[in-house]
Amino acid sequence: MPREVEFxxxxxxxRLSGLVHYESLTAELRIPYSSIVSVSVEPxxxxxxxxxxxxxxxxxxxxxxxxxxxxxxWYFFSVEDRRRAVTLxxxxxxxxxxAEPLRAVVLGAPDPARLxxxxxxxxxxxxxxxAAPP
Length: 134
Known about the structure:
By secondary structure, the protein is mainly β. The protein has one domain. Helices cover 14% and strands 43% of the residues. The chain has helices spanning 18-24, 112-123, and strands at 3-7, 11-16, 28-32, 36-40, 51-57, 64-70, 73-79, 85-93, 102-108. The strands form 2 sheets. The chain has a 6-stranded mixed sheet. The N and C termini lie far apart (29 Å).
């Protein structure tokens, strides 16, 4: 599996492996839950004329891996099919040594709706989280 999502105590950890790691130039994203503003399963389509910076984009496909800049904002993609992806809209999250914060992270997922629910559950205040199963 090229993408592994782990729910830490304070952050969502996304580990990229294999070809995805190579194409995106990134091995891991550690996103604090406090930086996640919202989570969407709506297909995210980069605007025409977007500028690719660090990563891979295969023309005429949805394959995008790495950091991209659109209209002065930065996004991170690791997706093969935008219809099977989760978009994390962020505020105040800088990945690695990047000077500019990421506006969103788009991740491919086998079950986007389920992943969105799991992320949202971890982003809610502890008092609002569902009880752990016995």
